[in-house]
Amino acid sequence: MSTETVPLPLLNLTFGVHAFKALALATELGVFTELSGGTTSVGRFAERHGIEERPAELLLTACTALGLLRRDDAGTYRNTDLSEEFLVRGKPYYFGGWVAVVDQHEYPAYLRLADSLRGNHPVSWDPVRQESLFAPDDPVMLEHFWEGMHALSAFTARRLAESLDFTAIRRVLDVGGGGGAFAVELCRHHPALRVTVFDLPFVCELTAPRIGAAGLEKRIDLAGGDFFTDPLPGGHDTVLLSNILHDWGERDARRILAACAEALPDNGLLVICESFVADDKRGPRPAALMSLNMLVETWGRNYTVAEYTAWLRERGLVTERVLSLDGAPTTGALVARKVPTRRNHP
Ligand SMILES: C[S@@+](CC[C@H](N)C(=O)[O-])C[C@H]1O[C@@H](n2cnc3c(N)ncnc32)[C@H](O)[C@@H]1O
């Protein structure tokens, strides 16, 4: 080993925990919300939160080093553009819901990652007592998950709206579209588009106010149902599956694909928006880590384009292209077309 070689990349990986917990605690304390448009000092911050100056300074310094706060020479702290836009409660793309999901729902589960590994089962919820990750039993999920999904997916949806040719797309069925991010952003970008969000009935109820707040009730319909037991609504030329299939084991993922293929007309499009693991399984990092996350959360994993292409072919769909949504929270979109079935003419 060269004397120059030091384990800094490893140390940097361990800092991930510290950085995330600083973000999570500051968000939970409402630091960025209280600083919106204003400033604080260590002393004022400590007083406001009823804490000593030492911990106050350490948290404010960590947030500054992480690019969440700016400190001037007089020791005054204010939000950066990033925290002002995304970490102030009440702003349209508030990201704190997702931070809360990771902190309160996923982080405790990672303390039991080894159990998940040894038992090959999720640990973020109890499969004996709960039907699925998405059952309405977990108050943290209910309060934060769909709000958090909206904050994450809005940016993927924007990239999809820009990257996919919508000229011939009139009506989209967003299967498992709870949170409403795709429906809202796609409709905003494409004024002639209509979208139906199909999700569990209680999720549709959570999503309805968000559609109302966007003023899109006339173009976005909500359809409550279960994609394993209910037929998917017809009349759509395009079906979207965003971050759905990785939630499920291979058998269930293929059942969902079969239901989507069934709901599409000939020449209809199926769009799978997901972070695809590379066919050679060497990465990329966001897909590989999301896939590991599926170990603690579900029985699923992030699949490869080759896997989807093979499963779709069995259902009469042909992969036409894979769009790279670089910089988006979800990094790819596979676009497949339903091939017209040949009918025997008399
Ligand atoms: C990871 S979220 C993805 C949400 C959205 N598509 C996005 O990308 O922002 C998975 C979604 O699938 C929905 N879902 C889970 N099981 C379902 C089922 N059996 N039938 C219909 N929707 C379901 C959940 O309620 C949730 O909204």
Please give a structural write-up.
This protein is α/β, with parallel strands linked by helices and 346 residues long. The protein folds into 2 domains: 8-86, Winged helix-like DNA-binding domain superfamily/Winged helix DNA-binding domain (Arc Repressor Mutant, subunit A), CATH 1.10.10; 96-338, 3-Layer(aba) Sandwich (Rossmann fold), CATH 3.40.50.150. It has helices spanning 8-28, 31-35, 42-49, 53-65, 81-86, 96-110, 113-119, 139-163, 181-189, 201-213, 250-263, 285-297, 305-314, and strands at 69-71, 77-79, 171-175, 194-199, 220-224, 238-242, 269-274, 317-324, 332-338. Strands 5-4-3-6-7-9-8 form a 7-stranded mixed beta sheet, with helices on both faces. The protein has a two-stranded antiparallel sheet with strand order 1-2. Helix 1 packs across helix 6 (96-110), helix 3 packs across helix 4 and helix 8 runs parallel beside helix 9 (181-189). The longest helix is centred in the middle third of the chain and has 25 residues, at 139-163. The protein starts with 7 loop residues before the first helix and ends in an 8-residue tail after the last strand. Bound molecules: S-adenosylmethionine. S-adenosylmethionine binds next to helix 8.
